[in-house]
Amino acid sequence: MMEVKDVVSWTTMRDIEIEAEWGLGGGGKAVRGDGSFITGHLGVEDFDEAFEVFHRMILCGEQPSKSSFSSCDIFVDTALLDMYAKSGEITSSVEIFNRMKNKNDVVWAAMIQGLAENGFAEESLQCFEEMGNA
């Protein structure tokens, strides 16, 4: 029996329930839902797993709606920004960053780090300065 019941344990239990329902048996990785799996992983900053869940949803034909992600838009955008930066697609990261209406410290840090790690030192410093003025 679990002693600590948190978002991770509840998400894992829901993942298993969905897998049983769909007969997938994927080792605790959700493939469908209303975005709650993604929100759970993003809530604990497990961005890689959030993208894995999203990817599996798409592969299984699940069509997420805008309302599925309305409560986690900033998490999804930050994760996308970070993913693109880590894969060297800094232009895509900047596009996502620029379209974001609300930016918290995590968003700014992801953009600053993405720019710096992709060889855009001056842009990274400029972004840091912009953060101080925001």
TrEMBL record:
Alphabetized UniProt keyword annotations: Repeat
Domain of life: Eukaryota
GO biological process: RNA modification
UniProt entry tagged with the keyword Transmembrane helix: no
Any one Gene Ontology molecular-function term assigned to this protein's record: RNA binding
Signal peptide stretch: none
PPR repeat windows: 104-134
InterPro entries recorded: PPR_At4g14850-like_plant (IPR046960), PPR_rpt (IPR002885), TPR-like_helical_dom_sf (IPR011990)
Protein name, UniProt field: Pentatricopeptide repeat-containing protein
Organism encoding this protein: Salvia splendens
